[in-house]
Amino acid sequence: MSQHIVVPRERGGIELDELLCLLFPLLNKGFLRDQVRAGNVLVDGNPAAVSQRLRTDQVVSLDIAEEDAPQRPVGSGVSPSVLYEDDDVLVIDKPSGLAVEPERWERTLACLSGDLLDLACERSDLAPAEASAPTAGLEFRPRLVHRIDKGTSGAVLVAKHIESERRLREDFEGQRIEKRYLALVEGEVALVDGETETIDAAIAPDRRRSGRMRLAPEGKQARTRVRVERRYRGFTLLACEPLTGRTHQIRVHLAGRGFPLAVDPQYGHRDKLFLSELKRGYRPKRGRPETPLIDRLTLHAAGLRFPTSTGERCEVEAPLPADWLRLEKQLAKVRPPRP
């Protein structure tokens, strides 16, 4: 596609790649940056840099083969649940089972980044078919600044513009953003109520099993602060605060201590949990298969604390999903804590 775009007054001072992301929401940022570096994007007829700041009335010319563009992230068709929003950020309540970004081998499956792009298009009064038209740019381009596992539910922080993205990434690197998770694990953790323990154990990819991580002295430093939230017979609900951001960190640390998630097919012992496993003598109704109490990771991103652009600290909580509440209700009935 060949396009010539005059930089509008309200976009004066914007960086080139940022303008392209707003004007072409169906094309991902990496692809657009590659096009600039390849010389397929000119400013006033001259080659440009990705981060070049644009002036009002400059002309941006593009000559991009649209068929070479990667497929845009696919949305689920369900508008994301917004827990918090200001001019700079969104906090989204991600459901379990929805990947944050397109999966490597299943790029046609729905993901949160697709839902966020749909939300931005909706707020800009753009129909999906119009979203690649450069005359109908987005008001904001959502940017994921951290990720949680597909099977994990809860709070995900999203930047609404490039300056916010840079600030939040710096805050993550400076450990100024606090993340709190709830993890229901197998076993009874011998930790005094009210006290915390910090698991300090390096993590590295497991070369024998693709997609898995393992405890490894030669790996990257990983630290997780843990305390007991509630106790049941045979299970413990833990509050976990990752102090570093390694892949599968909480799951690997807890499993390494002998307390895997109650449901975790990778690092634990099951992919779903049934009432018959908890209640002695329970039998499902004849002729009906038993429905699991929960059939996803028993890990929930329960809260975030982060500095806003004004320097104040914002705290956001993600409510427990229905399946989790159902599970804990049954645990309280059939597996109350030991006296």
What does this structure look like?
It contains six helices and 16 strands. β2 (41-43) and β3 (46-47) form a beta hairpin. α1 packs across α2 (29-37). The longest helix has 13 residues, at 322-334. The chain has three domains: 2-68, RNA-binding S4 domain (Structural Genomics Hypothetical 15.5 Kd Protein In mrcA-pckA Intergenic Region, Chain A, Roll), CATH 3.10.290; 81-164, Pseudouridine synthase (2-Layer Sandwich), CATH 3.30.2350; 177-334, Pseudouridine synthase (2-Layer Sandwich). The strands form three sheets. Strands 5, 6, 7, 8, 9, 10, 13, 14, 15 and 16 form a ten-stranded mixed β-sheet that branches. A four-stranded antiparallel β-sheet has the order 1-4-2-3. The protein has a two-stranded antiparallel ribbon with strand order 11-12. Residues 129-135 have low confidence and may be disordered. The N and C termini lie far apart (71 Å). By secondary structure, it is of the alpha+beta class. It is 18% helix and 25% strand. The protein is elongated and about 75 Å long.
